[in-house]
Amino acid sequence: MEKNKIFLSHRHSDTQSDCHRIRETLEQEFGEDAVFLDIENLEPGIRFADAIDKALKESKVVLVAIGPDWFGDPDENGVTRLFQEKDWVRREVSAALAKPDTRVIPLLLKGASRPTADQLPDELKELADLQTFEISITRWKYDLGVLVEALAKLIPRKKKTEPEPSPRPRPVPIPKPQKSWWGRNYLWVLGIFVVLMIVMISSDEFQQGYQDGLTNSENSYEAEDVQVDDQLSKDEINTLREEKPTGNEIYNSLELEDEPASPQYEAAVFDYSGKWWVWQEGVRMGYIFIKQNGYYFTFDYYYFDQKTGEGSGEFDGTYIYSTVFRIYGDNNSYGFKFGSNNGGISWYGQNYKNNSPASAELIKD
132: domain range? Predict the structure, then answer.
């Protein structure tokens, strides 16, 4: 049996509306038959248990939607629904975890936190060790896009049919504009003008005036007594050179200063380069890959094995901190600051979102 479906497990009283939105996006990318959302996909007259079991066997990925009320309401004895053996959410997740060829992804919605092992029934404790993925309300479109790209590595996308090109309209001939009177007759006008100029130049009056002008010009040049001294004394030449030095003399009088050497980055105390897992308040939030250059560094931020941000920062001898931290498609302000008390093996500090701090730590991969 081919496993090429996505099973969306959820508690109706907890995340039903969010899961409907997620299902619509996944169906657009992978097809309606590739997404299973229990009651939405059950055919009339089929036993619920058989349908769930069949869908899990055909699913390559199981998304476990976890909201603030995922554990369910307690009964009269104070036992929440998740700890009741007949709870369908518990049975779905337990069956998915038991299948080694099925990828189970905890999906945190509505600001829910990752459940810890001591909060789960025995057969669900493995869920606490799996990498979670969060879809927040403020970054819904972006987070869901990252999830789709990650699922596309496991589930083939549906083939999108390209619309047939519309027929091109036949070109309508554009009539040529009629020429103006000047456009039709400018050659005749120019020809007449040239003929008139030739007639005028050939006349006796024009030739006599031209000769008189040349004679007067020669006489005026002869009347002028212009004397040019061809020789200058040696003292006069030296005086001129001192007042107005030549290009070579100016160049030789300049003294070039030594160019300053390129600044060299000082070696930092710790080698903090490489891959570091980011843990925030007990939840693994992806990892950063640092490229160190002395006391300065750049880094890439990965969430759910997808590069979602980048930035740069500095090490001041005590703390490493970001100076620029940009999350793709997110207008919020992010940053971090960490210090180490064990020689750079691990770092402890805070992450920042819009200047609101959260306790965090970096652990080497």
Answer: 5-151
